[in-house]
Design goal:
Helices cover about 35% and strands about 15% of the residues. By secondary structure, it is α/β, with parallel strands linked by helices. The protein folds into two domains: about 160 residues, Alpha-Beta Complex (Aspartate Aminotransferase, domain 1), CATH 3.90.1150; about 250 residues, Aspartate Aminotransferase, domain 2. The strands form three sheets. Strands 4-10-9-8-7-5-6 form a seven-stranded mixed beta sheet, with helices on both faces. The radius of gyration is 21 Å and the shape is globular. The two termini are about 35 Å apart. Bound molecules: pyridoxal-5'-phosphate (PLP). Pyridoxal-5'-phosphate binds next to helix 4.
């Protein structure tokens, strides 16, 4: 099997030119456009296991995994078979069906949430959980953390991470982070610093009685990987003393860091949780859930309205059931992912050291960011620290490994995602490519 990535991707270039004529920026989600690393985005023709194949036939070891969902690898036989079987029975009903019950039973069993509601994206999950928190508490304000990303709902595009850390061209853009978000909406979103328990405590002491919910990424992926300190996690749990609900946004970490996500790994006790990505096995699904007494506020049981034409879609439910079912049946996958990603981290570390390149690696399980800056591994804990990375050095790394057949996340401020299909061969290829990238990078 050869990895063969040409320097120019002529079909991708042609498709990108056509796409730009009909779609803003040529893409349907901003980071895909490669704006922060330069060059032409590769248009993907198909994907299998740990590999993406682009429109020119070049194959890449994939570290995006569709930004998280593909934990089993692409085109997994069990997921494909489940979707194919569902397809024979029709693609959407607009009425309840058995797979929705089965997936809800599986999710509640794995996570301990008593009730779960399916939606079609992570954005809908966080947006709906916040509406629920406001409905339950009768309070207007919410609190989020700088550099955390919870999807693109208006009130959440405030000091947001992910694509917003690079697309505006300016790090740390002031609130709101997007044009089109009225200041009045943004004013209902309070912002505190991630991993700063004192700042959170004092904001809560002053405003806690007005705050419906604190929403957070339990391990941040959207400013690059940031790991919460035990002191910060304790401060997060204290927000409930003010009657504020604690919402763990597990859209990225759910079913990735453990079968019970970051909640299980870190021993969290959130009131509500949001899921996305893996829960739909690569099809569009999000979900939110928690204790029955809270979730029963959601319509039609309660007064908080939330609905969706394609919610609980049979194909999406089938993909989620197959994916979560495979994870539950093979819990050793989590050790395997941890081992691979640990070896990847160690290999990047020594390759960068040999080349004299500054690098600081943050990793939890199969989420990893290698920040291009010379501070010790694990020491980058805040948005500002992450934002101090050398994005030009990252762009060099990205382009160099891409040309060698490795598809890394096209932004310094994202996590990479390893799948169960990544093995020794992929590790070896990745580290060989990284060696060359660091050796040829300027310092
Ligand atoms: N929350 C987190 C933590 C995310 O990482 C994302 C997407 O990357 C979202 C919410 C939004 O999910 P979606 O893109 O499915 O709307």
């Amino acid at each position: 099997m050869t990895v063969n990535a040409p320097a120019t991707s002529t079909r991708s270039e042609a498709l990108f030119a056509r796409a730009k004529a009909v779609t803003p920026g040529g893409v349907n989600s901003p980071v895909r456009a490669f704006r922060s690393v330069g060059g032409t985005p590769r248009f993907i023709a198909h994907a299998d296991g740990a590999y993406l194949t682009d429109a020119d036939g070049a194959r890449y070891v994939d570290y995006i995994g569709s930004w998280g969902p593909m934990i089993l690898g692409h085109n997994h036989p069990a997921v494909r078979a489940a979707v194919a079987e569902a397809l024979l029975g029709g693609t959407s009903f607009g009425a309840p069906s058995e797979r929705e019950v089965l997936l809800a039973e599986l999710v509640t069993r794995l996570t301990g949430a008593e009730r779960v509601r399916f939606v079609s994206s992570g954005t809908e999950a966080t947006m709906s959980a916040l509406r629920l928190a406001r409905g339950v508490t009768g309070r207007k304000f919410i609190l989020k953390f700088r550099g955390n990303y919870h999807g693109h709902a208006d009130g959440l595009l405030v000091e947001a991470g992910s694509g917003l850390m690079t697309t505006s061209g300016e790090l740390g853009a002031a609130a709101p982070s997007s044009a089109g978000v009225p200041e009045e909406y943004a004013a209902l979103t309070l912002v505190s610093e991630y991993n700063d328990p004192a700042a959170l405590d004092s904001l809560m002491a002053e405003r806690g009685h007005e705050i419906a919910a604190v929403i957070f990424e339990p391990v941040v992926g959207n400013a690059g990987v940031l790991i919460p300190t035990p002191e910060f996690l304790a401060a997060l749990h204290r927000v409930r003393d003010s009657g504020t609900l604690l919402i763990a946004d597990e859209v990225m970490t759910g079913f990735r860091l453990s079968l019970n996500g970051a909640t299980g790994l870190l021993g969290l006790e959130p009131d509500l949780r949001c899921w996305g990505k893996i829960i739909g096995g690569g099809l569009p699904v999000g979900a939110y859930g928690g204790r029955a007494e809270l979730m029963e506020y959601v319509s039609p049981s309660g007064p908080v309205y939330q609905a969706g034409t394609l919610s609980g879609n049979p194909l999406a439910m089938a993909a989620g059931l197959a994916t979560l079912g495979a994870l539950e049946a093979n819990p050793g996958i989590y050790q395997q992912l941890d081992r691979y990603t640990g070896q990847l981290a160690a290999g990047l570390r020594s390759a960068a050291d040999r080349a004299g390149q500054p690098l600081s690696i943050n990793r939890v399980g199969s989420m990893l960011t290698a920040f291009h800056q010379g501070v010790p591994d694990g020491s980058i804990a805040t948005y500002q620290q992450a934002a101090a990375s050398d994005t030009a050095a990252f762009a060099h790394f990205f382009q160099s490994v891409l040309a060698q057949g490795i598809y890394w996340a096209p932004s310094q401020f994202e996590s990479i995602f390893v799948s169960a299909a990544h093995g020794d061969l992929e590790l070896e290829r990745t580290l060989a490519a990284a060696e060359q990238a660091y050796q040829t990078g300027g310092t």
